[in-house]
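Fold Annotation — chain and its backbone
Encoding — discrete vocabulary of local shapes
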Amino acid sequence: MLFPKFFAVFTAFAVTGASAQKCKCKANPCTTNLVKNGGFDSPLDGSPWIFSNMEVTSYKPRSSPQAALSQIEDSAQRNAIVQSVPLVEGESYTLRYYWTIVGGTFAASGGCEISASLDNFHGDDALYLSDTPQGTYSLHEWTFTAPANSKLNLVVFCKRDATLDVNVDDVSIYPASCLNPT
């Protein structure tokens, strides 16, 4: 009768050992947004983003309850959100974000844009804002090769005087190999 008890204990140990092995697997990189709090929703103060002349707003977010708001009042103003992002140097990634004009007067000659960069020097992506219906979000994507220790900078500005309010929401970075990240 001693044999069945030994067999039961061994079987339980083997199953437990197999379960522990599965826990060491890496997450699918296409399901993990490398940007933290890309929707500015949790926590509600927008952290870990660093805000410069921008703020979190509940006015017309793409995905509730919040978005980041940039209010441009003159051409000297540079409004930005910045976040350190864990990227692997030399790997390709795709940045995605949504933007919309939520107020102010848009002038095509104003040269207003959202500029994305990494560490303020590596690569640069300029999105020239177009006159779209207020509150209608547009998707923008930029694929880039990562430097080491990356800080993502999204800067909203106008080259000429303009009064413009722009929301940015649902910011994400995934490996460029992910065709349809979730």
